[in-house]
Structures are given as C-alpha cells and as structure tokens.
Amino acid sequence: MVFSSIIFIFLFLPVLLGVYYIVPQKFRNIIMLIFSLVFYAWGEPVYIILMIYSIVFNYFMGLNIGALKEKGRRAKRTFIFTVIVNLFILGFFKYYDFFIDNINSITGLNISGHDLPLPIGLSFYTFQALSYIADVYKGKVASQKNIVSFGVYIAMFPQLVAGPIVQYSDIDYQLKNRKESFENFGTGSFYFLWGLFKKVLLANRMGVIFESIIPLSQMSSLTAWIGALAYTFQIYFDFSGYSDMAIGLGYMFGFKLKPNFRYPYLSQSVTEFWRRWHISLGSWFREYVYIPLGGNRKGVYKHIRNTFAVWLLTGLWHGASWNFVVWGLYYGVILIIEKYFLKNIIDVLPSIVLRIYTMIVVIIGWVFFFSKDLTSAIDYIRVMFGFDNIALWDTTGIYYIITGGISLIICAICSTPLLYAIVQKCIERRKNKCAFYICFLHIIIFVVAVAYLVGDTYNPFLYFRF
Length: 466
Fold this sequence. Notes:
α9 (about 180-215) packs antiparallel against α18. The model has no long low-confidence stretch (mean pLDDT about 90). By secondary structure, this protein is mainly α. It folds into 2 domains: about 5-180, no CATH class; about 185-465, no CATH class. It has helices at about 5-20, 30-45, 50-70, 75-105, 120-135, 145-155, 170, 175, 180-215, 220-250, 270-275, 280-295, 300-320, 320-340, 345-350, 350-370, 375-385, 395-415, 420-430, 435-455. About 70% of the residues lie in helices and about 0% in strands.
C-alpha cells in the first residue's frame, strides 16, 4: 500500500483517523502500532514477522544495555552484539545475492543465492533501530520501558517504508507526550496534499517521459540529457513528495518529523546539495559513522578516509550493486575535491555558474542510479557528452522538448521556493480571505490528484526499493 493510492486515501487513512481520535489518549499508541503493522503487512504479510522480531529484539536489547549502564557495568559487548544482529539481517536480505554473484564471478563457482525479495522499508527501520541502540549505549536517552511506544517508533507507518529516518532522540518525548490539535492537523493536511501533488502530478509525469526515452536503442545527446533531467526531477518529486506526505501524516497524529529536503536543486556546490537532499540519511551517517570515526578532526588523511568510508556505506545502503558503490565513491571524490581544491574557486564564482555546475554533477550521478549496470551507465554518459560521433540533437529530442518542455519548466519552478513565496504574498495581502483561498487550493489539488490516480496506471515509488 502506498500513500498515493485510492485504497489508502479513501479507506485506510479515514478508518485510522476515526479510530485514533475516538479512543482515549492512553490507547492511541496501541492503535497506531496495530494499524502500522496492518499497513506493513498489506503488501508483504510474510515479512511482518521480521518487523515484529526487530521490535522485540531491539526492545529487550535496549533494556539490557540500559540496565548494564545503570549498574555502572560495561555494555559494549551487548551493544556490539545487537548491532551485528541488526546488520546481519539487513545484509542477508539486501546483500547476500550481490556477494554470492561476485564470488561466483571471481572463482567460477556456481553457488546459489536465496533470490528473496528485499523486505520493504528494511533499510529504514533497521537504521532507526540502530539509532535507538546507539543513543541508549551513549547515554543520550534512557531505554524505552514501554514496548508499545518502542513499537510505534520502529513501525510507525508514515515513515516506515521510505523515511525520513527518525533518530530516537528526536522522537522520544513525542512517543508519550505529543499533543494533537486542529492546528497540527491542518499543517499535516497541507504537507500531505503538497506531497501528493509532487508525487502524482510532477513525479509521475516525469517518469512517463523518462520511461519512454530509456528503451530507445539510439538517441542523441539532447535526448539523453532530457531523459536524465526527467529522472532528476522524477526522483526528487517522488522522494520529497513521499517525505512530505509522511511528515503531514505525522502531524495529523501529533508527531513532528523533521523536513527531509530543502530545495536541493538550488545548491551552489555538491557539498551543499548533500546538506539539502535526504537530510535524515546524511544526519544518520554523520551522527553514527562519520563523527565516531573522527570526522575531520584528525588531519587530512583521516578526513579523506572517513569521507570515503561514509560514502561507500551510503552507496551500499541504497542498493546491492556496483552501480551504487561507484555512485557513492563518485560523490566521495567530488566532496573531497570541493573541500581541498575548489573551495577558493567556489567562493568567488557567480551563483548561477555554481548552480549549473552542481546540477550537471548531480544529473550525471543519477545516471548510475537508474542504469541497470555500470556498463549501461557509462554508455549513457558517453551519449550525453557526444562521444563516438553521437549526434548532438535529433528529431526525437525536439519532440520531447515540444511535448514535455512545459512539464520540465513547471518542475524546475516547483523545485524552488517560488510557489511558496507567491502563496505567502497572497496571504499577506488578503489576510481576511486567506483561509478560504488555502482551503480552495487544497480541494483543487486533491481533486486533480485523485483524478490522475483513478485514470493513470503509472504510480511507482522509486525509494521503496532501497
């Protein structure tokens, strides 16, 4: 089940909201946990066992670590054991086949893989469990004594399958003391509808353009760039749209989740881009990998080592293939170059030049994301830059400019705060009528989005596979 589906919007969510707000406050975590498990089991009922195991195992390990620390005893072995178990489960489902395939390629053996589908959201809720265990071990938070509250943290459906990744210290207080209100519900509705707009009306449109270009056996540089640009917008509006819907749903139930994107395509360096894109993942790696390794405090060599370690892991987190490994190292190299070789240049170049540079680097990076293998990615990049006497433009490219140009421009505008600024300006000028205009805008967005959902069969969520 996905948020941008008829069954979620018109069945699951209304029923949950009704039950949630009817029951007394003290039972609302139980309702949230039950419905979150139902939400997860809807698409993959078998893997609900894995989810429940993660909740129970990490709950008791957290209690154990907390008890050891309260007694002044060392909890390091228990902490390491818990981390290993969590990573083993993630590794078995996500990386086992990748590992076996490479062993077979190197040795000529024919070891069989398990060919099991990756449980949806496993990477996300495993990282949340690790966040909790690490925070308890470091003494940053007390261990959670209520297994229902802990279950809500791990399984809460808004951010369960595609983030944002919530660090336990950010939500600990809210698990027991959150306040639901009409104001929060209104804020949540706005976030949800804006996310639905981005997903259904922008991401899906870009996906149609991208999916029609990729199968082409021959294309010009222009067509290749249009395809890569369409994917660039698709993955942004797909993922940020889902994150906005997750944040909105959180508000509806009294949870305040942190934003996961801050207009990343306006960045003036790749370093800045990664402070604005998938913020929760970057924060997680910084807090639990980069800083424990020493960050940038122990000299140039160790900083470079730590940067590459983080980006290798970031690539692997996204997927078990050499594409993602290269994608991660690609960004590691660029971030090192920006810090040690380009910093003075970046400080003086015009912002428009820096934004173009950043977008080119990012678009090339997405090629590794959408290509089926490294060879395909490299071949596609060669076409983009006109190698091997590839035509710079052709009638196909012109066709996509004519048929998709307006959509690309709309996506470019929606990648900036321009629309938000216009709405705010209108509110300031017409304060007495702003509530009416906002409600009317919400209704229009909702009706149009639902109309597209009913009539369109193309409705994937790209980040579900991570």
